[in-house]
What does this fold into?
Amino acid sequence: MVKYAILPSDLPERVLDFFDSIREPLIHIFMDEYTKLSGITYDEVTPWILPVVARKLSADAISEDEKKLLIQEIRRNLDAKL
It folds into this structure.
């Protein structure tokens, strides 16, 4: 969910930029550790992304921008499956 997170726009620009700059490396570090501890690879996690994104879409505390991003991801995933 870090991949799709949109931080509140009222945060300082440097915080938003910093988060964006570490987003992908953070995901890779997390998945490396997750794989080491669980034996589950990113390829095995991938099928769960769509249901998790759909669930996150129904959360109360997400912005309209984040909802748009999540809907784009759902559509992209569904198009890839067709």
Observations:
- Residues 55 and 70 are 10 Å apart (CA to CA).
- The first helix runs from residue 13 to 38.
- The helical segments are 13-38, 42-45, 49-57, 64-81.
